[in-house]
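Consider the subject:
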Amino acid sequence: MSGRFSPRPTAAPGVRAPLRSAPGTARTWTPPGPVDLGLVLTPLRRGPADPTYRAAPDGSFWRASRTPLGPGTLRVTAQRTGEVAAEAWGPGAEWLLDGLPALLGAHDDPGAFTPRHRLLAHTHHRRPGLRLTRTGLVLESLIPSVLEQKVTTDEAYRAWRLLVRKYGEPAPGPAPGLYVMPDVRAWALIPSWEWHRAGVDDKRAATVIRAVRAARRMEEAAAMEPEQAQARLELIPGIGPWTSAETVQRSNGAPDAVTVGDLHLPGIVGYALAGDRDADDAAMLGLLAPYAGQRHRAARLILLSGRTPARRVPKMPRADIGLL
């Protein structure tokens, strides 16, 4: 898919960026169809206090990323004309602006999805602005996905928040409190006790360290087909199908990368499509089989439908594992 690209170098009106930050640049892009920025970008947020992501009261969305050209901050806003306006700051600004269409789903094809269930047909119709994002960045999705292994989302979000704020750096541009995640060297040098303070056990910490030591190979996966990308990621001990799927859904915009091994998703899919809240992975994959090639989109639509069973698994207590 393609859209109209209108570059226009400018600085954010009335805002003086920090001296360490490059002047703000901007572009507009006209999507080929409806785009709901919230639906597209929310999967990139790791909890309501994610220091790399912000949904502002004015309807804009901010992201701080570590791009191949360096740190960058991106602000995206939908216009009444149907265009999307974006501004960016920092060494990675141009890279982020070049990737704007992919980020907002330009490579995604919602028309390839054919609903086979009334629930999905209804949700697909009500959510025409859903597009699958493609960030082109692997580690920024891989590392928080590793942190989410075998723990509650609250615990994982807390770990990500603490580690990014302590070992990352303030994002360039006019967004106080926004942070860029640590670079690969900083991740590799985090002391064991700091992982523990963040609630991250030795196994997950070791997996992150192995991944960042192979950062170049990991980032190459963003240009691969999703299946090959997952295979590349799973070469790292500690990264399995759950983690690789969660990553390529975001980095590669993979419409068929269904998450297996999840504690809740099989029951959600089973309940929505067959009234079976006790469905396992095999049952879930069977129910999603008619959507081969689009199984991740089908799962997203199910989650957006609101037809989900109440969770029966109690939250695990949070603790500093260094004290256990």
About this structure: Confidence is low (pLDDT under 50) at residues 1-22, 314-324. Residues 265-305 form one domain. Residues 153-167 form the longest helix (15 residues).
